[in-house]
Amino acid sequence: MVWQEWLFLGCLGFGLIYSLFVLFAADISLHGFGHVEIPLLHPLMWVSGTAAFGGLGFLLWRFSSFSPGIVYLLAGLGGVAVAIASYFLWIQPMKNAEASTGYSMNDLQGKIGDVLVTVPATGYGEVLIPMVNGVTNHIAASFEQETIVEGVRIVVVEVKENVLYVVPYQ
């Protein structure tokens, strides 16, 4: 093999090994790069472009009759195209998909839910509140000191000491 083939295979191998490393140890490998906001500096974009450059360059070098300059040009353009495509098809959508499943009790104020266990006029019942990642149930008391029976739709008016104060939803 000539040195150009080794160059292309080295780029391809580096990209594949780094991709596998990221797949199995993403928290470790991207620790320093996790909050890079400049798209051109995102490491996964560079790695995908490098791997594409290597793979395309090796195939063109080995199986085409193009001159070396054309092979480098086409491999470079292919690497840039794959890097850009990886940003818009993989990196950007994954960044937008990141969401926290945590919430504060104060976030429940104004939420609409259902009574799971009847809320007596002067006591506690249980309500079910739908959230982004499922449903959550909480201890509830009647805000207006009136009984709210099981199955009634409610709205959370206030949250005090981890108790939801609710009224029937109109």
Automatic annotation (TrEMBL):
Domain Membrane protein NfeD2 N-terminal transmembrane: 5-98
Keyword Kinase part of the UniProt annotation: no
Gene3D superfamilies: Nucleic acid-binding proteins (2.40.50.140)
Keyword presence, Cell membrane: no
Keyword tags: Hydrolase, Membrane, Protease, Transmembrane, Transmembrane helix
Source organism superkingdom: Bacteria
InterPro entries attached to this UniProt entry: NA-bd_OB-fold, NfeD2_TM
TM spans (from-to): 6-28, 40-63, 69-90
A GO MF term: peptidase activity
Coiled coil: none
Gene Ontology biological process: proteolysis
Protein name: Serine protease
Organism, scientific name: Brevibacillus fluminis
Lineage: Bacteria, Bacillati, Bacillota, Bacilli, Bacillales
